[in-house]
Structures are given as structure tokens and as C-alpha cells.
Sel1 domain protein repeat-containing protein
Amino acid sequence: MKCPSCSAEFEPPESNLPGGAQKCPSCGKFVLDLMNVDGAAVQNSGNLVGLYEKCASQGNASAQYNLAMLYKSGTDEIEQDEETAAKLFMESAEKGFAPAQFCVGSMYDDGTGTAQDKNKALKWYRTAAESGYERAQYNLAIMYDTGDGVQKNVAEAIKWFRKSAEQGNVNAQYNMANYYDTGDGVPQDKVEAIKWYRMAAEQGFAPAQRNLGCMYHDGEGVPADIEESVKWFLMAAEQGDYNAQFALYNMYQAGEISDD
């Protein structure tokens, strides 16, 4: 483990501190292993709050981020305070911590905890996106796709949707599929659309399941296959997708499927 304060490297013994924290033998400051400190996992771990506060005050970026997450949502120990969360996110972001950079972008985007500023949102999303953070890549793509705070640029949107989609972002995968399905910004390619719809559908994304059902029904990008079409329509319908439910009804009325 490497201490972010003094750069000393040491072999950490088994930690008896919450969150897997270690105390640097050289400078005595706490070191948090991000792999053991998950903002989503500490919501019910009040014993970590004091440790986060101590490490955050020493400039530990991951502790600042996790403490910000607690202030953002509020816990039994910490009253919700979006302004304090924004401050802590910024401190962590300025140290190059991509999840915090994304959160700073999001807060400027929404005007949560700070004044809304689309230019600053774009800046921080881009900073995190260029570090490979897929949620920032997706949000940056949305801004370019819609022209929100920046001149609309479909090519730039597709670039960032693709990067995010390749990391498994289901919404980005669905957007990539739509681009290829409609030929908006890229040459229309139903086979490529099928590929991205399938990726999103296999993650349980109902709109992608429904569109995949449509493509199997109509034989777009794949040979027509009623059984496969019904399979995907059912998956979407079971999640409450009205269009998938209506498609199944129409198929039943047309005699394409039976009560069996």
C-alpha cells in the first residue's frame, strides 16, 4: 500500500480499523483502501463516519468522496447537507478522483448544492470522462446529444456514448442501438443495432428488450423469428412495458401466437 500523504510504501498488516483503513508507519496518517470503502455500502456503517472525517481532514480523496456521499444523502449520524457535500466533492475532484469529478459535474448540472452552471458541468464531466469514468462519459454524451449547455454535436455524442457503452452502461448501449437503428449520425446498420440492443436487453433493460422483439418479429438485422420475438417481448412486458404488452396482444390477435 502507498501512502498518499508521504508516498511511503508499506505492507499493510490485517487492519482492525473500519473500512480496512491503515495507519502509515512513516507519517502516522490514515490510509484508506478505496476497494474497501464504498460510498454505497457505508450508509448503515456509522462507525465509519469518524474515520472518514479524520482521513478527509488529512486530504484523503477517497475519504472526502465517501464523506460527501453521506452528506449528500444524509444518515442517522449526519444530517443531509448538499452544500457540504458539494465542497467535499470538489476537494476530492481537485485531487483527480474521477467519481468525485463526476459528482461535481452532476451538481453543477442540476444546481444541487451549488449554483447551476452548465459550462462547469461540461468541464467536470469531460475531466472524469477522459479518465475513463463511464457515468461521466454517458452524461457528457447526453449534453452533446441534446445541446444542453453546449452546441449539439451528434458525432461527439456518439463518441462518448460508445466509450460508456463499451464499459457496460446500459443506457449508453441503448442509445448506440438507436443511432444505428435509425441511421442518425451514423450509416444505418440494423445488424449493429441488434448487437447493442442485445447487450442492453441482456442486462434487463425493458426498452431494449422490446426493440429486440420488434426486430426479430420484422426480420430487421436478423432472420424473422416469432419465438425469439415473443421471448423478448415477454421479458419487457413483465417489467410493465406497455408497447411490448400491446405487441404481444396484436400477435395473439393475428394468430402468430396461441394460448399455449
